[in-house]
Automatic annotation (TrEMBL):
Active-site residues from the entry: H252 (proton acceptor)
KW Oxidoreductase (keyword) present: yes
Protein name: Glucose-6-phosphate 1-dehydrogenase
Record's signal peptide: none
Involved pathway(s): Carbohydrate degradation; pentose phosphate pathway; D-ribulose 5-phosphate from D-glucose 6-phosphate (oxidative stage): step 1/3
UniProt KW keywords: Carbohydrate metabolism, Glucose metabolism, NADP, Oxidoreductase
GO biological processes: glucose metabolic process; pentose-phosphate shunt, oxidative branch
Domain Glucose-6-phosphate dehydrogenase NAD-binding: residue ranges: 16-199
């Protein structure tokens, strides 16, 4: 999917609620800059920051500019090499509206900014704290800003986290759906903006080869890992009330699971793709409390080291309770109850402060029959893996066994691989470019539908409920790959985690 061949998106007024927050400066503005550089924004697109701090359009633009310059220097993120001329073109589109999110007057002011130059089109991007999602949506509805009867589109983008459990996610969906239609809602999961995640569908469904072995006859189990080296950084308060399970599993890891496990959609359109994804996430077996306890491992990092660098423990991080029981690591075993995957466990793990940054899916195949090698060291060949690496070393690799040259029959692990960097010129991107462009053009394929989100929480809820009854939070040292109990989740099934990196 190359955007270079695409036309500029239609004009609209893009309101960024939470304009002074981190998301806008770190990701949304660099993504808009990249879209503008690639000619994908209409020249009449207007970007209006909305926040409670009094500021002018010039202040808003200057603050964003300072950040873009800073990230060039510091090498943060991906909007490197800021071109001042291009920035000036984008800055001309920027505007700012001071306003309290709870005050109806704010919404009257926004209404006055939507005009005919942009055909009455407007997008309301909720880059705010989640407690404002229902509040803002309701007020947008009350102010008539979500009414499309005059012809212009009205869309609402909702950031993560979408709820904190099944009941709150259902309540939020109900609240949004009271004031707008599902077709107006764009629920973001930034993993869907990653090229490597989108590529899972393309690889699976445009190469006939894969379908022939993509099932429980040939696949032994699947591992999905999102390992991070970072700790909780400045987000201690948020993270301490969230934990690794809520932060990563019902959203990012389940998106990866859905991409790997879904049935082929009848078309590559939003309804067909999202329908299949919702179905497969809905087929995750809801564990009983006992099974949820048995099939999950929680961990929390203690002080440790990354190389020689000492790292603080989680409880020493700013804004984290000194006796916190919040998990910074989680490993789960889930089963998908459908014909394709019956009997194939999916093992999921994610953690902060692990040894390497590595988001990958490892598909482990059933071993070859080995009777013919009884007398040799080949008696127990290692299983074949297909590794789909989402980041940072993007690509796909098959682990195969090969005969080491020489008179002896000795086998060795070799790799058959495809690295993105060897085939494609990867222009720096934040991952939000495609998502913003798709929202501007009305393509919901890469956004989560209500049923997908609720099915995800439904599968996670048994773990939340079981943990609320007790159970151990295992310790691991920062810089290590989680607690030993995380490994035992697999060794008890006579399997092991694919090595990271
Ligand atoms: C966010 C989580 O949604 O995803 C963070 O809140 C996590 O805790 C991040 O670090 C991971 O995203 P990525 O793109 O770095 O894998």
């Amino acid at each position: 999917m190359t955007k270079q061949t695409l036309a500029a998106a239609p004009p609209c007024t893009l309101f960024l609620f939470g304009a002074n927050g981190d998301l806008v400066k770190r990701l949304l503005m660099p993504a808009l800059y990249n879209l503008s550089r690639d000619g994908l924004l209409d020249r009449n697109l207007r970007i209006v920051g909305v926040d409670h701090n009094p500021a002018s359009a010039e202040d808003f633009a200057a603050r964003l500019h300072a950040f873009m310059v800073e990230r060039d220097k510091g090498g943060e993120g991906s909007a490197k090499c800021l071109d001042e001329k291009l920035w000036a073109r984008l800055a001309k589109r920027l505007d700012y509206q001071t306003g309290d999110f709870l005050d109806p007057a704010t919404y009257q002011a926004l209404a006055r900014r939507i005009d005919k130059t942009r055909h009455g089109n407007a997008i309301f991007y909720l880059a705010t704290s989640p407690r404002f999602f229902p509040e803002v949506a309701q007020r947008l509805g009350q102010a008539g800003l979500l009414d499309e009867s005059a012809g212009g589109f009205r869309r609402v983008v909702v950031e993560k986290p979408f709820g904190t459990d099944l009941a709150s996610a259902e309540a939020l969906n109900a609240c949004l759906l009271k004031v707008m239609g599902e077709r107006q809602i764009y629920r973001i999961d930034h993993y869907l903006g990653k090229e490597t995640v989108q590529n899972i569908l393309v690889s699976r469904f445009s190469n006939g080869l894969f379908e022939s072995f993509w099932n429980n006859h040939y696949i032994d189990h699947v591992q999905i890992t999102a390992a991070e080296t970072v700790g909780v950084e400045t987000r201690g308060a948020f993270y301490d009330s969230t934990g690794a399970l809520r932060d990563m599993v019902p959203n990012h890891l389940f998106q990866l699971l859905a991409m790997v496990a879904m049935e082929p959609p009848a078309a590559f359109g939003a309804d067909a793709v999202r329908g299949e994804k919702a179905k497969v996430v809905g087929a995750i077996r809801p564990w009983s409390a006992k099974m949820a306890q048995k099939n999950s491992v929680r961990g929390q990092y203690r002080a440790g080291k990354q190389g020689r660098k000492p790292l603080p423990g989680y409880r020493q991080e700013p804004n984290v309770a000194p006796d916190s029981q919040t998990e910074t690591y989680v490993a789960l075993k889930v089963m998908i109850d459908n014909w394709r995957w019956a009997g194939v466990p999916f093992y999921l793990r994610t953690g902060k402060r692990m040894s390497v940054r590595d988001t990958e899916i490892a598909i482990c195949f059933k071993p070859a029959p080995y009777a013919q090698f009884r007398e040799s060291e080949l008696e127990r060949p290692k299983p074949n893996y297909l590794k789909i690496q989402i980041q940072p070393n993007e690509g796909m690799w098959f682990d195969l066994q090969a005969k080491r040259p020489g008179p002896e029959l000795v086998m060795e692990n070799v790799e058959l691989g495809f690295a993105y960097k060897d085939f494609f010129k990867m222009t720096p991107a934040t991952g939000y470019e495609t998502l913003i462009y798709d929202c501007l053009t009305g393509d919901q394929t890469l956004f989560q539908r209500a049923d997908n989100i609720e099915n995800g929480w439904r599968a996670v809820q048994p773990f939340l409920d079981a943990w609320a009854q007790g159970g151990e939070v295992h310790e691991y040292s920062a810089g290590e790959d989680g607690p030993e109990a995380g490994n035992e989740l697999l060794t008890r099934d006579k399997r092991e985690w694919h090595r990271l990196g």
